[in-house]
Design brief:
The complex is a heterodimer. By secondary structure, chain A is an alpha/beta fold. Chain A has 13 helices and twelve strands. Chain A has helices at residues 18-33, 58-65, 81-94, 109-113, 143-158, 162-176, 190-195, 223-226, 259-270, 287-296, 305-310, 327-331, 338-350, and strands spanning 2-7, 42-45, 71-73, 101-107, 128-129, 198-200, 203-204, 214-220, 234-243, 279-282, 362-369, 374-382. Chain A is globular, with a radius of gyration of 19 Å. Chain B is mainly β. Chain B starts with a strand and ends in a 5-residue tail after the last strand. The chains are: A alpha/beta, B mainly beta.
Chain lengths: 384, 147
């Protein structure tokens, strides 16, 4: 059961550093759950534990937050890390490894580095690059160009258009209008997206997510403990994850992601199908990310993501509202967005969302990590 | 694979340099001798790039093969914005995934042409640029007449 959610100050918080985002989100999630920090006996943080630890690596954060976990998970798969954390945390609670798991994330990306994440190469000038990246680094790829390789191939194979991709950004902005914490709230049109600067063909500036600050936290506990809490708990119906590659040049099929496996597993494990999803919180680092997930998770047939997205179903009032907080494309993207997909899904199922989808019974959160590499999904439902 | 320049040239200066390891050193050194290599598994005959100590299909130890240096553009993008030097000075440029005639795919730049000329399916030919002693990096350009 997810019993607590919290965010730090969004979407821009120059007064907080990375650890400050973790801490504030944790404090608010525990208050939301009505639980004391001392009850936490499991912890997940996307950062592993290295000897040369950064300020928010898992091992350091356990110490900094004063936790005494019996279960830890430092899985770091980029933006999908938090869906994998929930997958692992739910299993840990179910098998009795621990009772209450805290998951935290924080990033001061915007305030510290400004808007350069997507369009700054991964390596400094004249750097010597080891490992598999040595076969990509000399060519000057960026995060945007990596996703552009998939978008270009999808256009080639299926006739997907820039207008169809743009419609995904337009829908996100329409949702963002209802979110006072969104970075951008003014409506945009398909023409606005197409008129925005081309960053890496075929992806324009407005095909790309915003860059923000932000932190988020979740608290999961047993069904039994949840009964004593606020009555606003949300059930983890199922979770699934899969990975096909890491570096973009080794993507096996540039139009298909590991979400085909994830979709099959996450729905089968819950005994549900795509048609049962009332709200879809979908990773949207770029418009093409959403299009590929719509297809691969089974919301529409392969190759038909363009017409499907452009038909209006994913916008406010549509039959499959996608990213009801405005998504990464308009609202919030501090670098790894996966935890905010889960937080918004919980709000929708509690009936506490800023733009509530009426009758929301089932919500899907699906994260994408690295370069369309590692996908994680969690199906959430109202507690029985 | 023709050797066409070095990291001293303005179009290449300042780019990150591959740091050869026990396996990749052979690849980069072969390229410096004008030879583009990929790997093939002696057990299951799977062909792969980038070079690894293990066949990604069956787990056996793969062997080197020499590629023809001919391929086609499988997918590509024109990078119009990259804030990081030296690439900030080189935009617009093409980042492509090239499918070798022999099957494996590899990342590269398509050089020596207008970026608007590049399309998926474009036949390309490899050339190599010397990054440092014993290390040359493959690049691609549109296959010329009779190439």
């Amino acid at each position: 059961m997810i019993v607590g959610i919290g965010t730090s100050d969004l979407p821009r918080a120059p007064h907080l550093d990375t650890v400050g985002h973790h801490v504030l989100a944790m404090q608010r999630a525990l208050a939301d759950a009505g639980m004391a920090k001392a009850e936490v006996d499991g912890y997940c943080c996307a950062g592993g534990s290295k000897s040369s630890a950064g300020p928010d690596d898992m091992g350091v954060m356990v110490e900094y937050l004063g936790l005494s976990p019996r279960f830890t998970d430092g899985t770091m798969t980029g933006g999908s890390s938090f869906e994998l954390h929930v997958e692992h945390a739910a299993a840990a609670i179910q098998t009795g490894l621990c009772d209450t798991v805290l998951i935290t994330y924080g990033s001061d990306q915007l305030s510290r580095l400004g808007r350069q994440l997507g369009t700054r190469g991964h390596f400094a000038e004249r750097t010597r690059v080891e490992g598999p990246a040595q076969f990509e680094a000399p060519y000057g790829g960026t995060i945007v160009s990596s996703y552009a390789l998939a978008a270009a191939r999808h256009m080639h194979e299926y006739g997907t258009t820039s207008e169809q991709l743009a419609s995904i950004a337009v829908a996100a902005r329409a949702h963002a209008a209802f979110n006072p914490e969104a970075m951008y709230r003014d409506p945009i049109t398909v023409d606005d997206v197409l008129a925005s600067p081309m960053v890496s063909d075929p992806l324009h500036k407005l095909d790309a997510c915003v860059i923000s600050d932000g932190g988020g936290a979740l608290v999961l506990t047993t069904a039994e403990r949840a009964k004593d809490l606020s009555g606003r708990e949300v059930a983890v119906l199922s979770a699934a994850s899969a990975q096909t590659h890491w570096n973009i040049s080794t993507m096996r099929d540039f139009t298909t992601t590991a979400a085909t496996t994830v979709g099959r597993d996450v729905f089968r494990r819950a005994g549900l199908g795509p048609g049962d999803v009332d709200v879809f919180e979908c990773y949207d680092s770029f418009t093409i990310t959403v299009l590929l997930l719509l297809e691969d998770l089974g919301f529409c047939p392969k190759g038909e993501g363009g017409p499907f997205a452009a038909s209006g179903v994913i916008g406010p009032g549509g039959s499959l509202p996608v990213n009801t907080d405005g998504g990464g494309l308009s609202a919030l993207h501090p670098g790894m967005r996966g935890i905010f997909l889960l937080i918004e899904a919980v709000r929708q199922l509690r009936g506490e969302a800023r733009h509530q989808v009426e009758g929301c019974e089932v919500a899907l959160a699906c994260g994408v990590g690295a370069w369309l590499s590692c996908i994680g999904a969690v199906l959430l439902g109202k507690a029985a | 694979m023709e050797l066409t320049g070095s990291w001293d040239d303005p179009d290449y200066a300042g780019r990150p340099v591959p740091d050869p390891d026990a396996l990749s050193a052979d690849f980069w050194a072969a390229a410096a001798n004008g030879e583009l290599r990929y790997q093939e598994c002696p057990v299951c005959h799977h062909r792969q790039f980038y070079p690894r100590l293990v066949c990604t299909e069956c787990g056996a130890t793969p062997e080197w093969r020499t590629a023809s240096g001919r391929g086609t553009v499988h997918t590509f993008t024109v990078v119009r914005k990259n804030l990081a030097p030296p690439f900030d000075r080189l935009t617009p440029y093409v980042v492509a995934v090239v499918e070798l005639e022999e099957g494996p795919k590899m990342m590269g730049n398509v050089t020596d042409c207008d970026v608007e000329q590049v399309r998926i399916g474009l036949p390309v030919t490899a050339h190599a640029v010397v990054a440092e002693d014993g290390v040359a990096v493959p690049f691609w350009r549109p296959a010329g007449d009779g190439a």
